[in-house]
Structures are given as structure tokens and as C-alpha cells.
Amino acid sequence: MTDSPERTLPESEQAPAPTPVMEALLAASLLVAGISLFFFAWLSSEMVEGEVGRFDAAVRDFVHTLASPARTQLMLFISRLGYDLMIWELVIALAVFWWLRWRRGAVWLAVTMIGAVGLDVVLKQAFHRIRPDAFFTAQPHSFSFPSGHALSSFCFYAVLAGLIASRVKSMPLKIGVGVAAALLVGAIGFSRIYLGVHYPSDVLAGYLAAALWVSTMLAVDRVRKKAVVTIKNRRPHG
Asked: What is the pTM of this model?
């Protein structure tokens, strides 16, 4: 009798049995999705009505006072980690995941990033916010709200860190990966404000949209795992 495809996968790729922790994670994912949606709707409404102008101007003016030639070069590099270099990182991550037989993780990451790109395009076209005048780089031609770098980097680095953390046993490594991802996502968002290519509210909106998308994906994944386990348990044994 041959093993099923499920049994031939690494343990980290198999659907776990339902537990109270899984139920709690499902509820938490839905809660985060709801909170992110609420705050994104509120922020976008404030943006459309022009209520965030003073906040955006104050933050941009303050960040601009921090400028220096060395810091500008650093911010240009960090900004590339949110799009140009991130594309190569995504390809490498997918290849490594596939080689390690983390197939579901690879698919999960790919679907997350495809959705992130689609979400960015749809939202930019929906709000049509004009870019601010760039400080230290060429003026992008796309719309400004939300920040695609903030949205995509949140989705990529947060999900990548989560997938790695769930598949390694070392607690220091889990914590280190999570902290590194959070710092990198924050730095990328800051770089877009520093370079002047986004308003601060664009970056916040990008993070909120990403949180909504990732938490929704997590909720769907939890429901899928529960369904897989339920179907397996209903199959006749023997």
C-alpha cells in the first residue's frame, strides 16, 4: 500500500489536526482583517476629503530635515528592497521553498504576492491620488495612494518570515526572523517618505491594505486546513 501525497510531504506541510489554537488564530485573523478594513476605509475617506494634508506636510517637512548625502544613498537602496530587488528575492525564495519541499509555503507566498500586486493596482486606480514632489529621486508616474512599496514589502517580508518561523524549531531564529522582517518593512516605508515619492498617509494605507490581505489569506488558509482534516477524518480507514 503506497503512501498518500499528504503523508509524503514534510511534517510542516501537512494539515494539522484542529486545535483550540487554530480556532484562536482563525478568530484573530478575522479580527485583524476587520480592524485593517475599518482603518483603511477611515484613512482613505480622510484622504479624499483632504483632512490628512496637515499631517502629511508636517511629517514630510520633519523627515526632510534629516536628509544627508549618505542617508539618501542608504534610503535609495532600502527603497529598492521594496520592489526592484524584492522581485529577485521572491524568485529565490520560491526556488528555495520548492527545493526544500515546502510546496504549500511556496504556493502561499506566490498567491499572496500576486494578490498584493493586483490590490495595489486596483486601489491606485480607484483613488487617483497625485504624487507629491519627489525630493531625491525621479518622479514616479503611477498614482500615490496607497504606497505599493509599503503594501508589497509588508506582504512579502511578513509572509516570508511567518512561513520560515512556522517551519523552524529554534525560538531565537523565529524571533530574529520576525524582528528583521518588521524592521525592514518599517525602513522601506520610511524610505518612501524620505525620498518624497509618497505621503506618509500613503505608506500607512499600504500597510493597512497589506494587513487586510495577509490576514484574510491566513483566515482562508485556516479554513482550508480544517476542511482538509475533516475530509480525511470522514474517509474510511483500512
From this structure: 0.85
For residue 117, the one-letter residue type is V
Q: Which residue has the cell 485556516?
A: 222
Q: What does the pLDDT look like over 97-122, one tens digit per residue?
A: 999 888 888 998 999 999 999 999 99
Domain ranges of the chain: 20-227
Task: Quickly count: other Cβ atoms within 10 Å of residue 204's Cβ.
Answer: 22
**pLDDT by residue (tens digit) across 17-76?**
555 656 676 778 788 889 999 999 999 999 998 899 999 999 999 999 999 999 999 999
**CA torsion angle for 177, 179, 180, 186 (degrees, to 10)?**
140
Of 81, 82, 89, 84, whose CA–CA distance to 160 is shortest? 89
d(CA 1, CA 106): 29
Amino acid 66 reads: L
Alpha carbons 12 and 40: distance in angstroms, whole number = 34
The rounded Cα 81 to chain-centroid distance in angstroms is: 13
pLDDT at residue 12 tops 60: no
Checking 165-170 for CB contacts under 8 A at 24+ apart, the result is: 166/12, 167/12, 167/102, 167/105
Answer for the pair 208, 36: CB distance below 8 angstroms, yes or no. Answer: yes
